[in-house]
Specification:
about 400 residues, alpha+beta, FAD/NAD(P)-binding domain, D-Amino Acid Oxidase, Chain A, domain 2, nine-stranded mixed β-sheet, eight-stranded mixed β-sheet, 20 strands, globular
């Protein structure tokens, strides 16, 4: 355990956003800084359980914070991985339209990609798609060269090394269990003892709304956890996917639909779906937390969301329990896929912020309170954009708290 207990800044959350923010602050005039992670290791939740995709910036509304930070952060991440010898690859992907409705949506994606400054995106006919992915089926596609793959746990660990080398602390097994105020200082009660700080930055991901409330701030939203479940292709079927194959997403939802992703350390993932999780860190179907379930069930915003999108939710749940339904969704992209080609994979849980009116919070949401910054929604492409997000949060904090 670190002997120091007093700091200028404490960052709650040792995922990729928390460590990127601390790394950005470590390069500034900050005397003492600590990152507090509840689990035994960094990147234990959203960061370490995603598909490892470096997103290009194709999907996001031009001019939005998501679009700006993704495009900037993507290139910064590629450069960081190169400098720190982190395995990665700018392999590209294709987005596949299988009918006329999806063809029209692909037009909009192409427009957004060009508006966001993506390089080399190209419309493909069916035969041209099969030059990139010989087993794919579709009417037309979009080739996106800037998309890549990486190990985000390795990236997060590298961020932590930079923080420590700058003379700051990164603590694991340091769960924040309570909060009090002592004059002008925050006192965080943790499983490693009390930590006091002048300024507090909440990057707690799945627990971000609860941490905000614990610290006396009202976030004005609630985290609703959605589990994304994956299969993996059996080794003899890896040849069916060369790189990344995506469907055209439904613009009404923040989820991209089931897709195929080659992983940087080998293998191919297929998925995910998006089902309500009954535990915020619930990576298995059997994982249930009474507290987390009641949090969702008692929230009017969730029921308003469910009333709008119940049919999609039922479909996602059915695909969660029916491998045959999951296979049907994958066969839209690669007709050769069979049930026996898939083996159970991992799962991730997305911290989806939901407004009281049932609206899904789509962009980054950052709020401030007395000497505190709360990152309340950091959805995909947060991992891709982590360096630029970290700088953005550090700028936000230093401009308000006189810690530049």
């Amino acid at each position: 355990m670190d002997a120091r207990s007093e700091y200028d800044i404490a960052v709650i959350g040792g995922g990729i956003v928390g460590t990127a923010t601390a790394m950005a602050l470590a390069n500034r005039n900050v005397a003492t800084l600590v990152v507090l992670e509840a689990e035994h290791h960094l990147a234990a939740h959203q960061t370490g359980n995603n598909s490892g995709v470096i997103h290009s910036g194709l999907y996001y509304k031009p001019g939005s914070l998501k679009a700006k930070l993704c495009v900037e952060g993507r290139e910064a991440l590629y450069a960081f991985c190169q400098a720190h010898n982190i395995p990665h690859e700018r392999c590209g992907k294709i987005v596949v339209a299988t009918n006329d409705q999806e063809r029209a949506a692909l037009d909009e994606l192409e427009r957004r990609g060009n508006a966001n400054g993506l390089r080399g995106i190209r419309r493909l006919t069916g035969p041209e798609m099969r030059e990139f992915e010989p087993h794919v089926w579709g009417e037309v596609g979009l080739h996106v060269p800037d998309t890549g793959i990486v190990d985000y746990r390795a990236v997060t660990e590298a961020y932590a090394r930079v923080i420590r080398e700058a003379g700051h602390d990164v603590r694991t097994d340091a769960r924040v269990t309570g909060y009090t105020r002592a004059g002008e200082r925050h006192v965080l009660h943790t499983t490693q003892g009390d930590v006091t700080c002048h300024y507090l930055i909440n990057c707690a991901g799945l627990q971000s709304d609860r941490v905000a409330r614990m610290c006396g701030a009202e976030p004005g939203l609630r985290i609703v956890p959605f589990r994304g479940e994956y299969y993996e292709l059996a080794p003899q079927c890896h040849h069916l996917v060369r790189n990344l194959i995506y469907p055209v997403p439904d613009p009404r939802f923040p989820f991209l639909g089931v897709h195929f992703t080659r992983m940087v350390h080998g293998g191919v993932e297929a998925g995910p779906n998006a089902v309500l999780a009954f535990k915020r860190e619930g990576y298995r179907k059997s994982a249930v937390s009474l507290r987390d379930t009641l949090s969702v069930a008692s929230y009017g915003g969730f029921w308003k969301l469910a009333s709008k999108h119940w049919s999609m939710g039922i479909g996602e749940m059915y695909r969660s329990w029916s491998k045959r339904a999951f296979v049907r969704a994958l066969k839209r992209l690669i007709p050769e896929i069979r049930g026996e080609d898939l083996v159970p994979g991992g799962a991730g849980v997305r911290a989806q912020a939901v407004e009281p009116d049932g609206k899904l919070v789509d962009d980054f949401r950052i709020a401030e309170a007395a000497d505190m910054v709360h990152v309340l929604n950091a959805p995909s492409p947060a991992a891709t954009a982590s360096i630029s997000i970290g700088k953005y949060i550090a700028d936000y904090a230093t401009s308000r708290f006189a810690i530049a």
